[in-house]
Amino acid sequence: MLDQLLIGAILIGALVLFVWDKWRYDIVAMLALLIAAALGLVPAQEVFAGFGNAAVITVAAVLVISHAMWRSGVVDALASLMKRVGDKAWIQMIALTTITTICSAFISNTGTMAIMIPVALQLSRSGLGHASKVLMPMAFGSLLGGTITMIGTPPNIIIADIRHEALGSSFGIFDFTPVGLSLAAIGLVFMWVTSRWLVPNTTSRDAANSPYDMSSYITELWVPEEANCVGQTLFELESKIKDNFAIVAVKHGKAVTTAPPRYYRIKAEDVLIVEADTETLQQIIDATGLELNADEELADRFLISAEVQVVEGVVGPDSRLIGRSAADLRLRHRFGVNVLAVARQGQPVKPNLANIRFKPGDVLLLQGDAEILTDVFRRFGCFPLAQRSMRIGGVKKLFTPLAIFAVAILASALGLLSVPVAFTAAAGAMVLANIIPLRELYENVDWPIVVLLGATIPLGGALERSGAAHTLAEWAFVVSSDAPAAVAMTILLVVTISLSNIVNNAAAAVLMAPIGLNMAESLGVAPDPFLMAVAVGAALPFITPIGHQSNILVMGPGGYAFGDYWKLGLPLTMVLTAATVPLILWFWPLYG
To answer: What's the whole-number mean pLDDT along residues 139-145?
Structure first.
């Protein structure tokens, strides 16, 4: 009994820390594992056994394959078809959500959304209307797509592996499809019909406007001979002004330098193109003797050149920017990148721009060398939102990754190879075929997810070994003792959905699967329906933005507040909850 109380206290503490979000979820999971090991709840030889688990290897391989498919332009090719579906907003919405759902069945939700968000924004600027009306349904569609196949989402991979350990055989890659595809169809139709009323119509992106008007903050300052900044470097000038201030271009005669280096020495009769608000401009003029020479069209003329671009991007859920500011990171000094603007929940954040602590979902407007900006986005875990050139390439470039992926799916579906072996081999083949460069192989594995899984799998074992999972199952059995087994399954489903909305859905699957197995054993029914209920519950966190990375990614571009998600997410969750149990029982009988 003491072991049950201890593992329960550790898991509850971990859940509290997950929700608090002060420490990243992989750190919390590892801390919980070490505490459990120190208390003897996890045997010494099993503490790090989770990292060798087949589910962890499969998740890593699927992430590599997803990036290779994204990089080769397979999803881009599908996204480019959106321009051909017609100019009616409702048709475009159906097409966007459908293609996002289909892609997410085979490619990571986050990777799919990284491609589809810019497509939706581009369509919104050319007639779709408010992007907010479609971005949330797209994010939810990506979650629905993950339920269709075993590789669609990490919880399905985990559930398949847990079944293998408990029953000796795993779920197949398409065993999830009957229930998952049915739920995806129901969810999509529900969103098509109701999103007009349930999704907020934010003002973050009307037809052609960003959430910030840069022309209001870009100004010319002329350098007279008597100005006290003549001979100083741009760094010295910027250091005098502690508020939001950046020099984005320098004009001397007919020569224009966009995103000038900080060591450039200011000359008399230079024209500095600066980004600053009115109060800061007055500070600059008073301190330096520069003269104002405003021009309303400066943003278009000086922010962009052949080498220099201005690109919007959204801060990803695991970005290295989170909790840090441009000043902390020294983006201008290290990379020559200017942070021109920041928008949060669709509204511009104006004061003290250099010191703003970035949050997941923030939209940044960055200026710099085109190649460097690409590296900065990749290095810091951000996703570009500006219109991009498609990476479609030739038929050969598209055919090779599709062929490798199809062979892996076929080999695993026919039982020729196990899923971990098939997809690890596919990931290796894509590296050998140079679809994904070797240097990007490990960069695009979501290591926090890998660590989370490696740490929580032994905790799930401790929950089972201590008898806590059996005790919880008995409680659920008592609650539903006079009702059909379907009621117990519904309770399991609702608890899992609730958990997945506040913690990582992979962790929810690891923790709830042993409880589902024990509930099935207590009721004397087949375990597969209960495992399917956990898989569905873990894969569909619609109510909060923190439930999944896809939800966070659309928060900034869509201008959503935290409380906007439940308006569509709660009714959608209720509809799918009502549909899930009958569908599971139809395809996976209790006494099969």
So the answer is: 95
